[in-house]
Specification:
Elements lengths: L1 E5 L10 H11 L1 H4 L3 E4 L7 E2 L4 H5 L1 H12 L3 E5 L4 E2 L2 H8 L4 E4 L2 E6 L2 E6 L9 H10 L2 H10 L2 H22 L2 H19 L3 E4 L5 E3 L3 E4 L2 H4 L1 E6 L2 E6 L2
Parallel strand pairs: 1-2, 2-4, 3-5, 4-6, 8-9, 9-11
Antiparallel strand pairs: 1-12, 7-8, 10-11, 12-13
Helix pairs in contact: 1-4
């Protein structure tokens, strides 16, 4: 079995670098030939709620995905912390049994092998502020509020401001090597608790490849996606 997975592209605008990276990913013969194509969260920098304007704004991407589904391929979309409460919109648009929306994680089976696939934000249990925020935005009442009362343009405006502020803070605070060391320690603990054979993760923007764990990091910087092929993990270049 083959799985091609990508996360954390953070597309902000139509035809920005992230947009072009995703188009290249979805055009790859290796990706298209996989049994599962996984969009593992934070594909978009902000996509919240069932707003049809998203489908119009990124019509090229969604049409590419629809064509892949039409060819009989399975596409899994795992919601991240930048793209959530969108499953109803996507399910309605694709209208295909081969489209699998996921909140949280999914376990795929390759013979006796069990492969845990998620956005990956559950690994760091020490980030209490983030976990509190996730608990809030995961509530059904939050989804109802967003879909009922918040217009698309307001969400986009809030997201643009939050993204700019987040990038400024991140540049000042993020120490990649220190963060990676902590992340590897947390991954060991996570594996001991879960007990699966393989893990395909994202969220941290930290590139990782071991015998049984893979994280494509930040595709805009690293230019990579995660690939599973019959028990072997590989970080592949997005060509």
């Amino acid at each position: 079995m083959q799985i091609s997975s990508i996360s954390d592209i953070h597309i902000k605008l139509k035809d920005d670098i992230g947009y072009r990276i995703l188009c290249r990913f979805l055009s790859s013969q290796t990706v298209i030939g996989s049994d599962y194509i996984v969009l593992a969260g934070d594909i978009f920098d902000l996509m919240v709620g069932d707003k049809k304007q998203y489908l119009q704004e990124y019509s090229v991407i969604f049409d590419m995905l629809k064509n892949i589904l039409f060819e009989g391929k399975k596409i899994i979309y795992i919601e991240g912390n930048h793209d959530f409460h969108i499953s109803k919109m996507l399910r309605s648009f694709f209208n295909s049994k081969n489209f699998i929306p996921v909140k949280g994680y999914i376990v795929l089976r390759d013979g006796e092998r069990k492969i845990y696939v998620s956005h990956g934000d559950e690994v760091d249990y020490t980030d209490l502020a983030y976990l509190r925020w996730k608990k809030i935005y995961s509530l059904k009442c939050f989804s109802f509020f967003v879909n009922t009362f918040l217009p698309y343009h307001f969400i986009k405006w809030v997201g643009d401001r939050a993204s700019k502020n987040s990038r400024k803070r991140g540049k000042k605070k993020f120490n990649y090597e220190k963060a990676k060391k902590k992340y590897l320690r947390l991954l060991c603990e996570f594996q001991n608790i879960k007990g699966y054979d393989y893990y395909i993760l994202g969220h941290t923007h930290i590139k990782v490849l071991t015998d049984n764990v893979i994280n494509n990091g930040f595709p805009i910087e690293h230019g990579l996606y995660s690939f599973y092929d019959n028990g072997v993990l590989e970080l592949k270049e997005i060509i």
